[in-house]
Amino acid sequence: xxGDVGHVRRPFTPLVMPSRYRVRIVFHGAIVLLxxxxxxxxxxxxxxxxxxxxxxTAHESLIMMGVWLLTMGSxxxxxxxxxxxxxxxxWALLATAxxxxxxxxxxxxxxxxxxxxxxxxILLVGFxxxxxxxxxxxxxxxxxxxxxxxxxxxxRGETSESLARSEVx
Length: 169
Description:
This protein is mostly helical. It is built from four helices and no strands. It has one domain (19-168). Helix content is 72%, strand content 0%.
């Protein structure tokens, strides 16, 4: 056994996602969705300009981000994650939503994209927001996949145990 003397591996017990995470994700999802809807107003002022296109992108992206958070509020009870993983998923979702919110609003205000480091302080803040958004989204997707996979494994384990019991009787 790998030379681990004294190490006892405890069985994986999936944790049901605490309801406080669900409620907070729904709350923040509603905030992001509202901001996304309100950001739609500037899109009607400057037809055909780069700034208008960036406002339109912010409008659609934040609506999508708000819907993602609202959806994750419904998905949380299905996932089987340890306490730290559940907290990581919660914070990754918030970092994604608010990181992209800052970046997209700044891009709309300046009329310039913030996809690379720059000497402009406001675009640098936008760039950092984009980086936080991308990294948070990747982490959230990986943790969601991890939780779904663990839930599937736990379900299969329960099913095979119940089948084995029914064959004995």
